[in-house]
Amino acid sequence: MKKFKIKTRKRELTKLWSKTVRERDGCCQWCYSRTRQLHAHHVVTKIYGNALRYNLENGMTLCSYCHRDIPNRIDEYIEFRNCWLWDRGIDYWKLYRQAQIKVKFTQTFFEHKKAKLLEALKKAEDIDL
Fold first, then answer.
1. Residue pLDDT, tens place only, 67-123
2. Domain count, the chain
3. Per the count of CB atoms within 10 A, which of 38, 48, 85, 113 is most buried?
4. DSSP-derived secondary structure letter, 36
5. Distance of CA 102 to the CA centre of its chain
6. CA 61, chain centre distance (Å)
7. Which is it for strands 38-42 and 59-63: parallel, antiparallel or unpaired?
């Protein structure tokens, strides 16, 4: 049996999470650009904890310009983020509290998250067709 390599598995989940978020949204959620390179952005930053790192509710698609410009427009971004979450029925502070829950990255955790992300990606791709 192969050794469970955490770094490799985290990288795999991060790429899958990013692809799923970008596929679900289809364009920058701030400026609606489809022409710029798209990035998956964590609504609640990873610095607050790992529990939401692979949670789709914690992801939005931003173009490279908007993603890079957040620090220069932080007040405007916070207002936009709160409205974006509100439109989806998501409470930022609930997400924030969930982010702080300690999560141990195990093979079971990996397999569960991967299955959920693949299922969501399939739905997003089906809708796109």
1. 999 999 999 999 999 999 999 999 999 988 888 888 888 888 889 999 999 999 998
2. 1
3. 38
4. S
5. 18
6. 8
7. antiparallel
